[in-house]
Amino acid sequence: MENKIFTVIGGDLRSVKLANQLMADGNTVYIYGFNNAGFEMGMTESKELEEAIIKSEVVIGPIPCSNDNETINAPFHSEKIHINEVFKIMSKNQLFIAGRIGDKIAHLAEIYNVYTIDLLDREEMAVLNAIPTAEGAIQIAMEEIPITLHDCNCLILGFGRIGKILGKMLHGIGSNVFIEARKYSDMAWIKSYGFNAVFINELNDCLSDMDVIFNTIPYMILDTNALSKLKSDCLIIDLASKPGGVDFEKAKSMGIKAIWALSLPGKVAPVTAAKFIKETINNIICELGV
Amino acid sequence: MENKIFTVIGGDLRSVKLANQLMADGNTVYIYGFNNAGFEMGMTESKELEEAIIKSEVVIGPIPCSNDNETINAPFHSEKIHINEVFKIMSKNQLFIAGRIGDKIAHLAEIYNVYTIDLLDREEMAVLNAIPTAEGAIQIAMEEIPITLHDCNCLILGFGRIGKILGKMLHGIGSNVFIEARKYSDMAWIKSYGFNAVFINELNDCLSDMDVIFNTIPYMILDTNALSKLKSDCLIIDLASKPGGVDFEKAKSMGIKAIWALSLPGKVAPVTAAKFIKETINNIICELGV
Amino acid sequence: MENKIFTVIGGDLRSVKLANQLMADGNTVYIYGFNNAGFEMGMTESKELEEAIIKSEVVIGPIPCSNDNETINAPFHSEKIHINEVFKIMSKNQLFIAGRIGDKIAHLAEIYNVYTIDLLDREEMAVLNAIPTAEGAIQIAMEEIPITLHDCNCLILGFGRIGKILGKMLHGIGSNVFIEARKYSDMAWIKSYGFNAVFINELNDCLSDMDVIFNTIPYMILDTNALSKLKSDCLIIDLASKPGGVDFEKAKSMGIKAIWALSLPGKVAPVTAAKFIKETINNIICELGV
Amino acid sequence: MENKIFTVIGGDLRSVKLANQLMADGNTVYIYGFNNAGFEMGMTESKELEEAIIKSEVVIGPIPCSNDNETINAPFHSEKIHINEVFKIMSKNQLFIAGRIGDKIAHLAEIYNVYTIDLLDREEMAVLNAIPTAEGAIQIAMEEIPITLHDCNCLILGFGRIGKILGKMLHGIGSNVFIEARKYSDMAWIKSYGFNAVFINELNDCLSDMDVIFNTIPYMILDTNALSKLKSDCLIIDLASKPGGVDFEKAKSMGIKAIWALSLPGKVAPVTAAKFIKETINNIICELGV
């Protein structure tokens, strides 16, 4: 993708890197919403919102798009950027791409006749994001435990995107990988990949042997009963979005360390995360034939 | 699973091995339909169909169940075993499990009030079968090509069950694995697994570098145009069910070796194939709470 | 390496492929000793030995160089090619490279003032040859056993070149890999690579669980006592050079299948084997600064 | 190993964990040299050096044994423990095991007629230590770089113990692994393991593509010339013991981040490091038949 005109508006370090990468690919890129960044951006910010948007073909908002459904999520900006002002400036030939565009923002877009696409609805984006998430989880485990991951018993709860990729990486480092799932076909996949398959009803029996547990299931699975089976020095890393899958208070009271690690891609690998956003945007543009 | 009563009726070597394994697990097993086997069965066949079925809890037919929709597929038996006679003997408390139970047989089962389950509808069975299929494909490639699979350029067309497992095994041997797919999310998965992702529109550009191509897509993909891009000593192994994905005549006329390899599990690893059938049957029984 | 003049003299299919590859790299190549080949050589043979050798910079003999220490090992030639005639034609500026140049041939070379290098003394050649050897062993196992190598218990006796590479490949396919060794440091390596380490004094205890045993140790290790521990359907593949490591007669009498698989590179992957010979010859030429 | 009597004297956290593990295995363990530890030791320290040693069969000193060749390296102890006093108490039936027993200490041992074994002379110990070293290096890389190791270009300088194990782990995470070596046989090994082999004379050509460089070679290899080829955001992690292989001052002046990471096993995985020491001690005891 090149010779397109993009606007990157608000967002965290990933948005900055995304703007840099789009420019390096030969596109024209306007940015707005970073007046407070305090580091070298590698490009000049537009002075006005309108200036940033008016000539653009694709306007890229942050992930998540907003924390209040009214203003753009712009941690590096000193003033509020109202979403309706963004939409007011945009014409119907422009595309608005951002992450987690909720009902309220979508409704606003309709009113202003703005075409929007949610990055988090893109399956390839979700798959790619599992890579830095898995690496971030491994980094945390390495930092926390006094043993090597090599020859360590690691249990992954859930066999979705993160479970698959995390399992592969842990196996690659030399961990003994156990994956819990609850469908027979997942059991078959887990075995075929060379992991130890733990059917949900066998979970309790294997908990006491585990050194690290990675949870990816977004509902209570490590409850009082499960926690009571663990070794006291077992580490729990919960990667599941709210409400998570761990009774953190109970774990704490039992002296079991449990870490809730969210939004890892932007934290551990912002440049890679930006690259994955860029690739997904390119795919969207290709599909739309913009 | 143990202490159940099974009947294994007809089928190839897998059915024999299945019967042996069920018995070794502590079940009672009747067999019928092997009077011509000519090898040591390890157990005694029932003399009459009725004797074989009458006390059974689960009657297991072959994969595929029938080649003519009228008689049981029984290559080791000298006489025809009519499906309607099997069903006539069975009571409604007995379960009939077999592979590829077509509409006609299903209709017959309804008439006789027999409860049937098709093994090939079971996702875990399909996944597990991809393991011997992938190994069989590797064996054929090893036998046919005068180079090692190590450091060999292998292209897999399609990223379904076989594509995933075959890719993993080839990578494990040291091949340079390329996988073709046509969804962006599949591209993401392929990259995340460390394979070279080939988007469908890039396929033609990479064909000329390939040493072996494994097809898993059941429609014409290696047509005249694609074949013309290949090195003359490129080997094609088609694993797709009918109609396959290769223009075999054209390939032959161009001097390109193309092998259509079907039904590999029963051929290359009947004991493992039988084990996977057994596991799937156990899962069915668990689910039904029989 | 290019623009050199080579002679390839005698040898099996690998020598033919080697000549082809050297020519494809842009060298001039004379060949002699294939008048009986009966297949398309892709190049014209010299009519006389002298014509083939006289202009050459490097004369390449077969692997092994000779079976009788007097004539070149030339299975595709109808007449004998005497080594001393080869040496008589060669000048001291020419290099003679071949495999397994024994004392007698070396002595002859001294007499004729010919500089020789033995390919089998080259460590990189030995390492590279372990690749097709390991693949060949895997192919044989796949052909012989009715189970998949995936999830199969494979024991490798010895942790030398073949043991290491075979272990890696089997692990890559999904086998449960056990490797026997007798040094503590090898135990450490085996564990670090993620295999199951079997110390020599634990060998007897693990034999009964094995589905396939690959031996790489060239002295009797699978003797009557060890064989008596095996399952009757355990397959033995002996990759060790003479005298091998298996009591084959005893195995046969016990109904255990044991295959002595020698010289696999030339048999299973002659083109790759030729490439490895070529790379080694290039290394030799680089080192000598010829 | 059990029912032996050990003394653990001085050392860092690994020594504490080692004492705990030896006791957990069923041995009697005396400890001395931790009066300042400030954490729960899990066992009671002997009050006097003599009390700690007198009944012991094996006295285990730290790694390294001493920093001044006169006193035991005892970071958790408030007073000096003189090596000659340790040796004075020991009888000739006792064994002294520690790491890096230099000439001076060895000489002292001779005078006092004490039998000593240096842990760092044990090959298995060196191999096993490469596992936490490699993981520690990966942890540092993950913490430092804003990209994922997955699909990252990683160059390892040197193909010794650490190079081999680090290469395997990085490959397992999904890095593109390049390994530099200078022997043709190492090139062959590197290729056979599926890594990209970089011959020493090709090194300069590949430097500019690298994202992370891990050095294991203990002499200047990343000098001004090599550093000038790197991307400015390339990270260097030097794992080589003194004098290291990186011109750190030059790197700093060029804005290239270079980290000298020594003694990783004790830092990142003290429990695993202790386990490896214990296994090595067990091997020593087995060999000696003590």
Brief digest:
Chains A, B, C, D: This is Dipicolinate synthase subunit A. The first copy, chain A, has helices spanning 13-24, 49-53, 83-89, 103-111, 123-144, 161-173, 184-192, 203-206, 224-227, 248-253, 264-268, 270-288; strands at 5-9, 28-32, 58-60, 95-98, 115-118, 153-157, 176-181, 196-199, 212-215, 235-238, 258-260.
Architecture of the largest domain in chain A, according to CATH? 3-Layer(aba) Sandwich
Low-pLDDT windows of residues of chain A: none
Rg of chain A computed from alpha carbons, rounded to a whole number of angstroms: 22 Å
Largest sheet of chain A: 6 strands, parallel
Class based on secondary structure composition and strand pairing of chain A: alpha/beta
Mean pLDDT of chain A: 96
What is the string of SSEs of chain A from the N terminus onward?
EHEHEHEHEHEHEHEHEHEHEHH
Quote the distance from N terminus to C terminus of chain A. Answer: 11 Å
Please report the first level of CATH classification, the CATH class of the largest domain in chain A: Alpha Beta
Can you tell me the CATH superfamily of the largest domain in chain A?
NAD(P)-binding Rossmann-like Domain
Q: Largest chain interface and its two residue counts? A: A-D, 28 and 27 residues
> Please, how many domains of chain A?
2
Task: Indicate the percent of residues in helices of chain A.
Answer: 25-40%
Domain Dipicolinate synthase subunit A N-terminal (chains A, B, C, D): 6-119
Protein name (chains A, B, C, D): Dipicolinate synthase subunit A
GO molecular function, one term (chains A, B, C, D): NAD binding
InterPro entries (chains A, B, C, D): D-isomer_DH_NAD-bd (IPR006140), DpaA_N (IPR031629), NAD(P)-bd_dom_sf (IPR036291)
